[in-house]
Write a structure and sequence with these properties.
The protein is mostly helical. It has helices at 3-30, 49-74, 107-112, 115-120, 145-155; strands at 81-86, 92-94.
Length: 181
Amino acid sequence: MNGKSVQIWLIAAVCLALVIATAGVIHGQQTKLPDSYAPVSPEPMKAPFDEVMKRMIAEKPAIMKRQMDLLETRYDLSDKPAKGVTMFRGKPVQEGVRIKLPQGMTWEKLAQSSSEEIREKDLWPAGFYPLPHPNHPEGGMLFPKQHIDEIKKQEARTSLDSISTSTCPSTCFPSSRLRSS
């Protein structure tokens, strides 16, 4: 090959590379690639900040009332400070159990009940359940239920009850750490 044909092949190769690169860029701009962003609200917020702030200030009393009503149904919020016990800067520590039990239930009855009975009769105190986010439009969860379910499915989580000491290596339960009573 002479020098002129090498130049022609080189120019043709560069032109072909530019055409392919341009086509790739144009194709990438035309097709929206999927992403992991899940918008919090049905429509992404497009309102100016001042409008959003005014709307949220107007909604705050209703949101606070709803959250306080929920707290009052789950917990005893009365002020019962323990005598002689304070936090670091003098704030009194509240005394006693603060979780409210279902109607007609006592802690003694709950302790006597089996886990199946508690589950079937829905006797578990609501105060032990997680609190929803006060102002979250997706049903009060920072992560929607379908996301949590999908993560659990993908990770195939199991309870600790299903793990026995026979399936764990001996390093999990070293005999030097076990104490007989």
